[in-house]
Amino acid sequence: xxxxxxxxxxxxxxxxxxxxxxxxxxxxxxxxxxxxxxxxxxxxxxxxxxxxxxxxxxxxxxxxxxxxxxxxxxxxxxxxxxxxxxxxxxxxxxxxxxxxxxxxxxxxxxxxxxxxxxxxxxxxxxxxxxxxxxxxxxxxxxxxxxxxxxxxxxxxxxxxx
Length: 161
Prior knowledge:
mainly alpha; TspO_MBR; transmembrane helix; transmembrane; TspO and MBR related proteins
């Protein structure tokens, strides 16, 4: 465990706000790239198990909160650990890139390849976070489950369309 003096680290509440802002930026960029996502989604040929479009907003809101708190818990425990938070940042960037690829560019195949990389980066983040904080790692489990489901949905929509 890395020890930091209180003079070198921001207060916990400020750091949590930083993690929330970083994740909010990911959400907003994705949202801007998919302003018409609900209409597009409704127009796709979808598998019978595809969820309704209204479900995505609430699910992602909860997931983004869990992602931010997870990163913050590791920060509280160990500071900004280089490998763990670098991979955390990579998965945030991959998360942000998927929506513009899928909805903005309509590149379903490329989006599928990208979401596989996202899935792998979430697994790597979870493994690295578990070394610092088991609760932080467990907070990523719903995110991994949802991205697993989203990957299957991406593949199905790509295949059907």
